[in-house]
Automatic annotation (TrEMBL):
<dbReference type="Pfam" id="PF00278">
    <property type="entry name" value="Orn_DAP_Arg_deC"/>
</dbReference>
<comment type="similarity">
    <text>Belongs to the Orn/Lys/Arg decarboxylase class-II family.</text>
</comment>
<dbReference type="InterPro" id="IPR000183">
    <property type="entry name" value="Orn/DAP/Arg_de-COase"/>
</dbReference>
<feature type="domain" description="Orn/DAP/Arg decarboxylase 2 N-terminal">
    <location>
        <begin position="32"/>
        <end position="272"/>
    </location>
</feature>
<feature type="region of interest" description="Disordered">
    <location>
        <begin position="319"/>
        <end position="338"/>
    </location>
</feature>
<keyword id="KW-0456">Lyase</keyword>
<keyword id="KW-0457">Lysine biosynthesis</keyword>
<dbReference type="InterPro" id="IPR022644">
    <property type="entry name" value="De-COase2_N"/>
</dbReference>
<keyword id="KW-0210">Decarboxylase</keyword>
<keyword id="KW-0028">Amino-acid biosynthesis</keyword>
<dbReference type="GO" id="GO:0008836">
    <property type="term" value="F:diaminopimelate decarboxylase activity"/>
</dbReference>
<dbReference type="InterPro" id="IPR029066">
    <property type="entry name" value="PLP-binding_barrel"/>
</dbReference>
<keyword id="KW-0663">Pyridoxal phosphate</keyword>
<dbReference type="InterPro" id="IPR009006">
    <property type="entry name" value="Ala_racemase/Decarboxylase_C"/>
</dbReference>
<comment type="pathway">
    <text>Amino-acid biosynthesis; L-lysine biosynthesis via DAP pathway; L-lysine from DL-2,6-diaminopimelate: step 1/1.</text>
</comment>
<dbReference type="InterPro" id="IPR002986">
    <property type="entry name" value="DAP_deCOOHase_LysA"/>
</dbReference>
<feature type="domain" description="Orn/DAP/Arg decarboxylase 2 C-terminal">
    <location>
        <begin position="18"/>
        <end position="376"/>
    </location>
</feature>
Length: 401
């Protein structure tokens, strides 16, 4: 990801910025397409993970669909040229304005999260003399074994329709003439690396499928959601997520009937490893108890560590590169410079503005370039201008096309 030319380029660029390695993105998309097409599975990109225009353009060029969670995401998906037959609209609180926008765009499917929402979509579709494609998002009560802030499929979560409400769903579907029932939708959480969890999900999906069919509803679409995790600890050696194992679980345990389509909504796994947040050391504060590296990027550029205690690999590109080139030509030779523990913090006026405590790094100096890795998912999209900061910029690798 970082050769000498890249680092030279960083030296000449104003920080902080997101650096997108379009080669990594392309390889990741290739791997996902290969692994999913083996089983005829359909992948929709969860646009919420990153709506940087160049990233979205590349994803669209691979033929993936778009999973949107707001009217603006639906609009953006259409503007980026996604096939409307591959655009789905999820979200627990779709406004009337957003539903109307999606109806006007003739998207493929609404993933519906409550009985009341079914009635509203039906009314709005009727007013336009249209029929809306519908999948019912079911809360399967499957524990994703991930951080509780990014778990979505448990009874106590706000998402989806609980199984005890399914009779109401069936009754409502029967009387809503402007809805076309397409299938069932699930999403149990994010950053899931334990494939057992997906096996449990398959079993629940099979049960739910039986329930609908026993109540007279044919299922065309089984939408399993997203959530495949990435390796935040080894971005250089484990760059491509394990798409093979992921899709294999579904091919093995999901009861797919002839004519049915299996849909996935991957966000993080497609984009996380393709970007790093590049920042500079503004000040080094050596205290009696702590040493601080104060960066020119903070929670306004990358919120994940502060919000979910998320781990991101942190590197000092200026010093590690020096140590590496002293040692050997091989770019991955581990550096041997003495390590110092730093709390790596941002400039924002909040104590929580800390990327990580006690990070082992080579002795660092003002002006050093720091890379915070695996920042392509839920990074730039969650940036803010708190403290009236400038919006973070983006830089792209030259292998972009
Ligand atoms: N489908 C639905 C209905 C979702 O809610 C999500 C993510 C996805 C698909 C895509 O999940 P993925 O494949 O990216 O795991 N900001 C948090 C993650 C929030 C995920 C929200 N929903 C983070 O930075 O970890």
């Amino acid at each position: 990801m970082f050769n000498n030319n890249t680092i030279q380029r960083f030296n000449d660029t104003e920080t902080p910025f997101y650096y997108y390695d379009m080669g990594v993105l392309r390889n990741t998309l290739d791997a996902c397409r290969d692994a999913s097409s083996k089983y005829g599975f359909h992948v929709h990109y969860a646009m919420k993970a990153n709506f940087n225009p160049k990233v979205v353009d590349m994803i669209q060029s691979f033929g993936f669909g778009a999973d949107c969670v707001s009217g603006n995401e639906v609009k953006s998906a259409m503007e980026h040229g996604f096939d409307k037959g591959k655009v789905v609209f999820a979200g627990v609180g779709k406004s009337d304005k957003e539903i109307n926008l999606a109806l006007d765009a003739d998207i493929f499917c609404f993933n519906v999260e409550s009985v009341q929402e079914l009635e509203i979509i039906n009314d709005l579709a009727k007013a336009k003399n249209k029929v809306a494609g519908i999948a019912i998002r079911i809360n399967p009560n499957v524990d994703a074994h991930t951080h509780h802030y990014i778990t979505t499929g448990l009874d106590e979560n706000k998402f989806g329709i609980n199984t005890w409400q399914l009779n109401d769903v069936a009754e409502t579907l029967r009387k809503c003439a402007n809805l076309k029932f397409l299938g069932i939708h699930f999403h149990i959480g994010s950053q899931i690396t334990d494939m057992e969890v997906y096996r449990s999900l398959c079993i629940r999906i099979n049960e739910m499928q039986d329930w609908f069919e026993n109540h007279g509803f044919a299922i065309k679409i089984l939408n399993t959601g997203g959530g495949l995790g990435v390796d935040y600890y080894n971005p250089d050696t484990n760059t491509i997520p394990d798409f093979e194992s992921y899709f294999k679980v579904f091919s093995k345990f999901l009861n797919v009937k002839p004519g049915q389509e299996v849909h996935f909504e991957l966000g993080r796994a497609l984009v996380a490893q393709s970007a790093s947040l590049i920042s500079r050391v503004l000040y080094v504060k050596n205290g009696q108890k702590k040493n601080f590296l104060i960066l020119d990027a903070g929670m306004t550029e990358l919120m994940r560590p502060m919000l979910y205690q998320a781990y991101h690999t942190i590197e000092n590109l200026s010093r590690e590169r020096e140590a590496k080139s002293e040692g050997a030509d091989a770019p991955d030779t581990p550096h041997t410079a003495p390590q110092i523990k730093y709390d790596v913090v941002g400039p924002i006026c909040e104590s929580t503005d800390c990327f990580r405590k006690d990070v082992d790094l080579p002795q660092s100096y003002r002006g050093d370039l720091i890379a915070i890795r695996t920042a392509g998912a839920y990074g730039e999209v969650m940036a803010s201008n708190y403290n009236l900061r400038d919006h973070v910029q983006s830089v792209y690798s030259e292998t972009a096309d």
